[in-house]
TrEMBL record:
Compartment list: Cell membrane
Membrane topology recorded in Swiss-Prot or TrEMBL: Peripheral membrane protein
Protein's UniProt name: Peptide/nickel transport system ATP-binding protein
Organism whose genome encodes this protein: Kutzneria kofuensis
A GO cellular component annotation in the UniProt record: plasma membrane
């Protein structure tokens, strides 16, 4: 119990969520058997490549998918089922109990209305108050997200705000009705590093002030490492690994997670090549047989092509550490699993940047000499 909030009772419980889109080419299996729980004040990080189902699952929770989408499974908010509710019934929850911060603030804000008017409208949608009271609440929300002179800035239009300030406005719109769950869909995209840090600090401060739970959808593993409590890694529409952020990052039990961590720039390895995951994600219309990651996996075995693995327990910590991999035990035996994705490229030499750190003068001379020899050979 924290500040009168029962932190053990889930605010949001998603069970076996599946989303499909019928198309002329076949059925797109956008989300497959997604399950998770979210408790008050908890921050859940959702990571994965583009097209892995991160945003589609969040849109399904809010009932924002097109009518052609086929959604099955359970989405329960405080025990009440949301999947299957009518448009008008969902409006009572959307923005009030569960809200969303979209990744592009310019497409979320109307350019012809002032920021204050848009925030006031969002508040009036769920509260029977005067326009004056709604405006005061809009100014208060701007102040809450750290916008200076909120009474003056509320009268301005979105184009008069910087990118970081517009993102703060979108956050203000998401929190103005004091929701229990905030879904942040890549809120730091296209922002510089310092502004990113400010936005993340703002979200955590809002969490502390309102006891809201946050779902952080991002491709930035640094954001996940420094902000979330739990993380779920998605691939080809389903969760392939989940658990506490410390367990998943320190002892990954799914090769795809290992590949994501290995492709993240490491300051201690300056000048060395990144180790990207080879290949591309599979088509969600024609998924490969067995494990969806098998065509790209360095640990692939015959069983990986035969059946898709179940999500099984792979750790003994306080938080369940689940993985969807037939060979997670073998992976656990590697001292440095990131080396599984390392490969020597044809013609690759030791990186110039790494050599310059050891002996800058010699490297520069040798590099210039090599360049001169190559030019002479080309000329002859």
């Amino acid at each position: 119990m924290t500040n009168g909030i029962d932190t053990n009772e889930p605010l949001l419980r998603v069970s076996d969520l599946t989303v499909e889109f019928p198309t002329d080419d076949g059925v797109v299996h956008a989300v497959r058997d997604l399950s998770f729980e979210l408790k008050p004040r908890e921050v859940l990080g959702v990571v994965g490549e583009s097209g892995s189902g991160k945003s589609v699952s969040s849109m399904a929770i809010l009932g924002l998918l097109p009518k052609t989408a086929r959604v099955s499974g359970s989405i329960a908010y405080r025990g009440q089922e949301l999947n299957g509710l009518s448009y008008n019934e969902m409006r009572k929850f959307r923005g009030n109990s569960v809200s969303m911060i979209f990744q592009d603030p310019m497409t979320s804000l109307n350019p012809v209305f002032t920021v204050g008017a848009q925030l006031a409208e969002a508040y009036l949608e769920h509260h029977k108050v005067s326009k004056k009271a709604a405006w005061a609440k809009a100014v208060e929300a701007l102040e809450q997200v750290g916008i200076p002179q909120p009474d003056r800035r509320a009268k301005q239009y979105p184009h008069e705000f910087s990118g970081g300030m517009r993102q703060r406005v979108v956050i203000a719109m998401a929190i103005i009705n004091d929701p229990d769950v905030i879904i942040a869909d890549e809120p730091t995209t296209a922002l510089d590093v310092t502004v990113q840090a400010q936005i993340l600090e703002t979200l955590l401060r809002i969490r502390d002030e309102t006891n809201a739970a946050i779902i952080m959808i991002t491709h930035d593993l640094g954001v996940v490492a420094g902000m979330v409590d739990k993380v779920q890694v998605m691939y080809a529409g389903t969760v392939v690994e989940s658990g506490s952020v410390d367990e998943v990052f320190e002892t990954p039990r799914m090769p795809y997670t290992v590949g994501l961590l290995g492709s993240n720039p490491d300051p201690s390895l300056i000048g060395q090549r990144l180790t990207p995951i080879t290949g591309a994600p599979p088509s969600l219309v024609n998924l490969p047989s067995g494990c969806a990651f098998s065509p790209r996996c360095p640990l692939v075995a015959p069983v990986c092509h035969e059946s898709e693995p179940e999500l099984v327990e792979a750790g003994g910590g306080a938080t369940a550490h689940l993985t969807r991999c037939h060979r997670w035990n073998d992976l656990a035996g590697y001292e440095d699993p990131k080396k599984l994705f390392a490969r020597k490229e044809i013609g690759a030499e030791e990186p110039i940047a790494a050599l310059m750190i050891d002996n800058p003068e010699v490297v520069v001379e040798e590099h210039l000499a090599d360049s001169g020899d190559q030019q002479k050979e080309a000329a002859s």
